Amino acid sequence: MAPNNAHTALWPAPHASGAVDATVHVPGSKSVTNRALVLAALASEPGWLRRPLRSRDTLLMAGALRAMGVGIEEGVGPDGSGEAWRVLPTGLHGPATVDVGNAGTVMRFLPPVAALADGPVRFDGDPRSYERPLNGVIDALRTLGARIDDDGRGALPLTVHGVGALDGGPVSIDASSSSQFVSALLLSGPRFNQGVEVRHTGATLPSMPHIRMTVDMLRAVGAQVDTPESGGEPNVWRVTPGALLGRDLTIEPDLSNAQPFLAAALVTGGKVIVPDWPARTTQPGDRLREVFTEMGGSCTLTEYGLEFTGSGSVHGIDVDLGDVGELTPGIAAVAALADSPSTLRGVSHLRLHETDRLAALTKEINELGGDVTETADGLHIRPRRLHDGIFHTYEDHRMATAGAIIGLAVEGVQIENVATTAKTLPDFPDLWTGMLGA
Ligand SMILES: O=C(O)C1=C[C@@H](OP(=O)(O)O)[C@@H](O)[C@H](O)C1
Ligand SMILES: C=C(OP(=O)(O)O)C(=O)O
Q1: What residues does CATH 3.65.10.10 cover in the chain?
Q2: Which of 117, 258, 313, 320 qualifies as a FRET site for 99, CA 20 to 30 Å off?
Q3: ipTM, 2 decimals?
Q4: Cα of 127 to ligand 2 centre, how many Å?
Q5: DSSP secondary structure string, 150-203?
């Protein structure tokens, strides 16, 4: 078989010769785009998504919904400005085939949607998608009345035999391995005959901001949602059955994808402005303002966006990242360049992300001369003088951007398969070299 050059290709990570000073327009949020697509597909009238992210994960989501009959057309928004998708909901149809790639949002958010289709929907994806937990969604859907054929492992591949409607009602799940189990059931909940009541029974629940994002976006399209934060029982979310509105939504920039650019300001003692940083958001990336300030930077949020400035010093940090796990690779990269050790906690579930992120970060930083050890629930990082070498990425977009951060400060770092950033940020190499003025 011919070698897959995209995977073996090495990208010389640009080394920063001085402090960066740039404005970086970061494309739309993956998490917001994929929720908006699902909600628009389930609505009772057409809707608009403006400035949607166009990346592997969102194109897979759009392709899957189209396969079930939803119209997603290219267009300009109703006011004539900006790129947009117009979403035309219809009855959801099977038979259909869905490629989830390695998108957690697609593999978890769509089986409940497929249960509403009028025929079988087959789900398959990348080899890694077979290893990522899906049992919470599969077991819950069976409890709520769906028929699903899988191989008994609680994972992909599988077929959901939709019959056009789902009873819904109460269900208990352990979502300690992924918050996306909860989000998945809530997003389709308004369309279940009895709505849904999701009770999380596990000891921990990661990524709470992402669950808040789901609840906020459901409410914005007219759903009634009761949450622990709105006076309900702890760990219980309730969605009332009802029709969803078609809305005109402008997608926020992806704040987790802003991370490497803010990190560049931090590690080079420079300045990066990210326009359109929202004043209020549920995105976990907003926590970077606090984390990267504690690590040595400072930031100002204005109506124009976020201005982040490095001081020239980078400090270690002891932090629980359970709420914001997807920020871990970028924080680990900065921590490897700091003037004191770091402990990153609360992220054992990262072992089941795009790759085992705790093992991958430990191995790759140590191969450049670092001193990282895995703990039961995170990483301990003792900064060392790093040297040149190949930074492997394991088909993980956030490993590639973590390696690029290290490359700014360490000469001769080569990123294997930087193209894997296409999962959520296909423009990464160009934005990165543009930031550096190359
Ligand atoms: O709902 C979402 O959009 C996401 C939830 C989180 O998943 P986990 O709770 O599985 O970590 C996050 O890591 C992922 O990148 C996106
Ligand atoms: C964990 C991530 O993605 P997914 O949506 O595939 O879970 C991520 O983007 O860091």
Answers
A1: 5-28+253-435, 30-250
A2: 258
A3: 0.99
A4: 15
A5: E-SSSSSSEEEE--S----EEEEE--TT-THHHHHHHHHGGGSTT-EEEEE-SS
